[in-house]
């Protein structure tokens, strides 16, 4: 394993022409040129023992193959005894590195333009394939369960469909099985979608007959986020009873500045989320029940 500690023992046995061990002969061990980075031999030379064997250990902090050649006495192709290749494996995953996809922006309930990508490495910085990464947070991911295995480059990626709430959203990538917990957090800013509805907002929900009240009309997307229109909108406000003919309730018109107006109109400015209408009065008769709102205000516009 490429952890710098788990060494592989390399042994050479030297014999004469009839197979007898040859002791006290110097054997030189050498890494080939492509194998020298982050690889260490415990010794460059060892003498054969009584049974003709010489051994050294090879450690590595770099995953991948390493080739060692043994020579009799000195590094000379004519004196080469043999060679061996050892493939060092990456260690357990301990690092989760954010590669790309952070700090994007998009529309609520739509996928971001770029995938979210993380990379998994071991303690000595080797990439680790087939490690499990779990993505979870706002919105949805593809794959839908958010669980991805790293590929041959040690990377895992998902696409992110933002949640339905406008504003800051987060998605967290977690390296499964790592202790302590290893995570990276992606952030995105979601914008409201196109106009889809109008919402009427009151300071309270009292019965409205004969009591002046202020109305705020808000332009919203399909997920109830405040949104805007690129040009001014003409908005009409009408009223109707929810409890008409019950407990003495009667229908009526809306009044503003003492004059009936059905509907009351207002203009929502371009790139504006709200418009206020002040001192509105409902001219109908409220029901006797003083605890349940019985007037329904309806805002309409050509969206």
Describe the structure.
This protein has strands at residues 8-13, 26-31, 39-41, 45-47, 53-60, 64-72, 80-88, 93-100, 104-107, 116-122, 132-137, 140-142, 147-149, 155-161, 167-175, 183-191, 197-202, 213-220, 233-241, 254-256, 259-260, 264-268, 274-282, 295-300. With 303 residues, it is an all-beta fold. The strands form six sheets. Strands 9-16-15-11-13 form a five-stranded mixed β-sheet, with no helix packed on it. The protein has a five-stranded antiparallel β-sheet with strand order 17-18-23-20-21, with no helix packed on it.
Question: What is this entry, summarized?
Answer:
With 303 residues, this protein is mainly beta. It has strands at 8-13, 26-31, 39-41, 45-47, 53-60, 64-72, 80-88, 93-100, 104-107, 116-122, 132-137, 140-142, 147-149, 155-161, 167-175, 183-191, 197-202, 213-220, 233-241, 254-256, 259-260, 264-268, 274-282, 295-300.
Notable traits:
303 residues; 5-stranded antiparallel β-sheet; 0% helix; 49% strand; rod-shaped
């Amino acid at each position: 394993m490429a952890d710098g500690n788990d060494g592989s023992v390399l042994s050479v046995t030297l014999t004469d022409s009839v197979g007898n061990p040859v002791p006290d002969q110097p054997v030189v061990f050498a890494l080939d040129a492509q194998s020298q980075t982050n690889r260490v031999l415990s010794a460059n030379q060892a003498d054969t023992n009584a049974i003709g064997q010489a051994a050294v250990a090879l450690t590595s902090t770099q995953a991948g193959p390493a080739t060692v050649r043994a020579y009799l006495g000195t590094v000379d192709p004519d004196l080469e005894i043999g060679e061996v290749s050892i493939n060092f494996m990456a260690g357990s995953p301990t690092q989760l590195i954010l590669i790309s996809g952070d700090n994007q922006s998009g529309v609520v309930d739509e996928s971001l333009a770029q995938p979210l990508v993380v990379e998994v490495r071991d303690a000595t910085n080797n990439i680790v394939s087939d490690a499990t990464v779990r993505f979870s947070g706002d919105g949805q991911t593809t794959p839908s369960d958010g669980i991805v295995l790293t590929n041959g480059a040690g990377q895992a990626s998902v696409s992110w469909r933002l949640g339905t709430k406008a504003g800051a959203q987060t998605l967290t990538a977690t390296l499964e099985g790592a202790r302590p917990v290893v995570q990276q957090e992606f952030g995105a800013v979601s914008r409201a979608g196109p106009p889809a509805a109008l919402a009427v907002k009151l300071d309270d929900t009292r019965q409205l007959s004969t009591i002046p009240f202020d109305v705020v009309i808000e332009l919203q997307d399909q997920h109830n986020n405040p949104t805007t229109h690129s040009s001014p909108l003409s908005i009409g406000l009408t009223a109707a009873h929810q409890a008409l003919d019950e407990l003495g309730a009667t229908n009526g018109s809306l009044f503003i500045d003492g004059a009936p107006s059905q509907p009351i109109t207002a203009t929502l400015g371009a790139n504006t989320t709200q418009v206020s209408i002040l001192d509105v009065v409902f001219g109908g008769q409220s029901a006797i029940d003083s605890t349940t709102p019985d007037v329904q205000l309806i805002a309409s516009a050509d969206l």
